Amino acid sequence: MTQETHMDAEPGIVIVGSGLAAVSVLDGLKDASYAGRVTMIGEEPHYPYDRPPLSKDVLLKTGAESTILLREQETYEGQDVTLLRGRAVTALDPSLRCVMLDNGDTIDYGRLVLATGSRPKVLPLLSPATPGVFYLRTLDDALALRVAMKRASSLIVIGGGVIGLEVAAVAVQRGIATTVIEAGPRLMARTAPPLLSHVLQQAHSAHGVAIRCNTYPVGFEYGNDSHTVTLSDDTTLVADLIVVGIGVTPEITLAQSAGIDCGAMGIAVDGLGRTSADGVFAAGEVAYAFNDISGRHEKHESWHHAAAHGRHVGHALVDAHAGYAEICGYWSDQYDLNINVFGSTQGDDLAVRGDPDTRRFAIYHLAAGAIIGITCVNDPKELRIGKRLVKARAVIAREMLEDTNASLPPAGLKAA
Ligand SMILES: Cc1cc2nc3c(=O)[nH]c(=O)nc-3n(C[C@H](O)[C@H](O)[C@H](O)COP(=O)(O)OP(=O)(O)OC[C@H]3O[C@@H](n4cnc5c(N)ncnc54)[C@H](O)[C@@H]3O)c2cc1C
What we know:
By secondary structure, this protein is of the alpha/beta class. The protein has helices spanning 20-31, 57-60, 74-78, 139-151, 162-173, 194-206, 253-257, 303-318, 380-392, 398-402; strands at 13-16, 38-42, 81-85, 89-93, 98-101, 106-108, 111-114, 118-120, 133-135, 154-158, 177-182, 210-213, 217-223, 226-231, 236-239, 241-244, 248-250, 262-263, 266-269, 280-282, 287-291, 296-298, 329-334, 337-343, 349-353, 361-367, 370-377.
């Protein structure tokens, strides 16, 4: 393992962004015993915090935001990290190895990590500046939405993906009449198998959320503190608030203007997090990262990937020990449903273990007979076993996977 030390005058490592990936880069640097200077620049005014609670507890309970910091504040000083909060990087010059800030300052770097995450996709017909319209990405977004929910009696959620559904679950629990509009034929269609979409639809309907699939907004009007939304099926809905959750796009502006290889999937990086510009790395959700396991570039929008990739890139900045090799997953909490997905859901077959009506079951995703992923609802034990089977790409007969009397993994099968 190589270790680098930096003279005070020597530019150190600069991280753009102060989200989970950025903080995980610090963990990776620590793993690799890096003792040099680090400057982390984040445009948000807050100390780095965790985003998953924003669509769950923070919307539900006043004060929940006090427990979402990713690290204690002192730990930044302990690791010789200068954290610039409320400061955006406006330009990057890889040839001069420096970044420009929104206050006109310039900071030199030895190596730079872009950990700029994603921004919510904006509906072209609906200005985010319209009163009562919310997108949910930051703590400030969540706090503003929570306040607005206090006065609201009705809400339209546009987008039946993870964030939209989590917001709908909170809203209806807060007594707000909630409708979810989903353009596709079913909920969470991008990542969930049809069975999970069905279970989610049942759960939301049982709690009183109106689900409208196969339709999308074609017109918006705002007046008298109220929104009228015209849908593609010629119906109209009226509500106090609108939350838009139609996905995110990677924040590649800096990389793009610096001529770094990037696109709709993010900033292309190799297995060590290196971009096409010498000395510039990218980590977390913004990275279109090469994964040694799949042998291709992948885009992930999950906590797991941001943490694992950030840490990996932090380590690789100091010591190019190995390529990124991570099987990723995500979770979602809606009502009493704790949903965990690990690995790929894009198989050619699946096996259902347990009874979905009991709200405790697992779906094993299979490709050419091998287990490549698991979707698990309310069953942490099955999830633990399933993860091992996914890592091993275990081949187990579908009948056995579906037989809850047969214990997994079967005797003699080597799971990772
Ligand atoms: C509401 C919500 C709920 C979620 N729930 C879950 C969940 O339940 N399970 C799950 O697996 N995942 C969940 N996620 C996803 C997970 O939180 C993200 O994948 C993760 O936060 C990505 O981390 P990141 O550091 O790569 O990017 P981000 O968290 O987006 O951080 C990037 C940071 O960089 C800053 N930045 C961007 N450009 C600049 C610039 N030019 N200068 C300075 N700073 C800049 C941004 O302001 C931001 O603070 C959720 C996300 C959200 C928004």
